[in-house]
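User: Could you write out the 3D structure of this protein bound to '5'-O-(N-(L-prolyl)-sulfamoyl)adenosine? I've included everything you need below.
Assistant: Certainly. Input first, then the structure.
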Amino acid sequence: MRMSRYFMPTLKENPSEAQIVSHRLMLRAGMIRQSSAGIYSWLPLGLRVLRNIERIVREEQDRAGCQELLMPTIQPADLWRESGRYDAYGPEMLRIGDRHDREMLYGPTNEELITDIFRNTARSYKDLPKILYHIQWKFRDEVRPRFGVMRGREFLMKDSYSFDLDYEGSKRSYNKMFVAYLKTFARMGLKAIPMRADTGPIGGDLSHEFLILAETGESQVFCHRDFLEMDVLAEDIDYHSDEQVQSIVEKFTSQYAATDEKHDAAKEQELGVDLISARGIEVGHIFHFGTKYSKPLNAVVAGPNGEEITVEMGSYGIGVSRLVGAIIEASHDDNGIVWPESVAPFKVGIVNLKASDEACAKACDDIYAKLAASGVEALYDDRDERAGVKFADMDLVGLPWQLVVGPRGLQNGIVEFKSRVSGEREELSIESALSRLCA
Ligand code: P5A
């Protein structure tokens, strides 16, 4: 993408409304703009990151055997009356009337709707197990929307729902999602710690929140010091192997980790200096709630002997739009964002130091075309701006690599190749710079 044509309204000054670094940087890099409290438009640069996160989430869900569908954002109130949650959900739910005075709502989550789909389609135990998911916008009328996309009112969530015949089956589904989440967050360069958590308005007997530690986190958490050094889950998982899945879950749950609400004060004595207390950002939350929704909504299948079996369920959420902010909280410096390569909006930025110089422009055009031909996405600063402005913008936007092309280096066929993470610069021939990026 040529920056001279790109819609990327960067800001030099820190916007006064932003209290935390990720919100500041997202506004400054031209990724989002607020439309009303807790509701944002995603500008082209921000949308590229959101889509990359979505893609990783989707790939890992599919790998774990989940199937994607798409449910609507607007739901009928009656379904929520059936589960008993319509009144209980309170003012966080945006209630809407249509032209026929039918009561509708903008979905804050989809347990009722998916259970309705399931009860109208599944017939036999042979239809199980199943895990269905979608990636869809939610609305929660939060008391205090803040920190940009971190606590929005409208936000993008990946939510999955599992259906099993019995408790053992639903525990297997829960464990699969547990492992898929470890893998998903690791691919985004995040160390997300699974912690015992309160089930709140979703309900159920068992749940884990996945949190990344950050001073700006909204949750108070407690965990064993070992988690600071834990390896993120890098290996490939065979989701058909219950043993492998279970052993990974056991490894991560064997050490103490809990959010504020589930914290056991006795652990403070027991663990002593090994217990750390910190702030965390909740990027995912998984729930096992058995028949909480399937029973009132009568989601049953016929068992092997024709008997009726009420299905056992769980639900599993990832805050897709919150992750954009969370990744920035975890990865930035004084100059701006430092994107992990897996979610970066572009892999490399080409900085033309002298746009008015014909040779320089030609070399940059050529590099840009060659990268494109190899499928490498580049943000090409071809603007007629001072070098200082270009460097500052490139650092702010945080692409993993920068290729700096100036008239002096070009005379010797040399460009500068800079890593955004380490700040290291190397002088390379154009060919070797290209082959590094295309490798
Ligand atoms: C699980 C999937 C649920 O809603 N039902 C379907 C369950 N869980 S949850 O914990 O309430 O939300 C899942 C994840 O969504 C993100 N999230 C938010 N992101 C931005 N702004 C918000 N206001 C917001 N609320 C929740 C979190 O990452 C949470 O883990």
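Residues 109, 140, 142, 151-152, 155, 157, 159, 202, 282-285, 287, 315-317, 319, 321-322 surround '5'-O-(N-(L-prolyl)-sulfamoyl)adenosine (CB under 6 Å).
User: Perfect, thank you.
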